[in-house]
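Take a minute with the sequence and C-alpha cells given here and flag any C-alpha cell that looks odd. Thanks in advance.
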Amino acid sequence: MDQGPISRDRHGRGMRRPLPSKLFHHGIARKHFFEDVVAETCDYLKEAFPEKLSKLSWEIEDVPQVSEQEPIRRFLANKEKMQITLYRIPIQRIGKMRISDPRLQIEQAVISAAAALIDADPWDLIHPN
C-alpha cells in the first residue's frame, strides 16, 4: 500500500510533526538570553560597586567595526559616557577560551568590560573585599 511521502503514520500514532533543531531553538532565544544575562550582570555590578559603577550603562551590538590591523573586540569601554558596548557574536563564538556554560562566557565579558571602564582587575569585581 503506497501512502506516498505525505503520510508518515508510524505504529498507528498519527502524523509525525517535525521537531525543531537545537539551532532553531537557540537561534530564537539566543539574543534574548544574551540581553538578559548582560542586564543581570550589570545590575549586580551596579549594586555591588555603587561608588564606582552606579552610572554604568550598556548596549549590545552584534559585531564591532573591524579593521585588518586589530583583533576582533569582544567589548568596548567608553569612560566618558560610563558605558560598555558588548559585541554579541564575538563573545559567543570567538573567545580565547571557549567556556562550556554560555552564561559564564557572557558574564566574563561584561565583568571584563566593566573592569576596563574603571581601570580595575576583573578579579576585583568578581571577588569584592
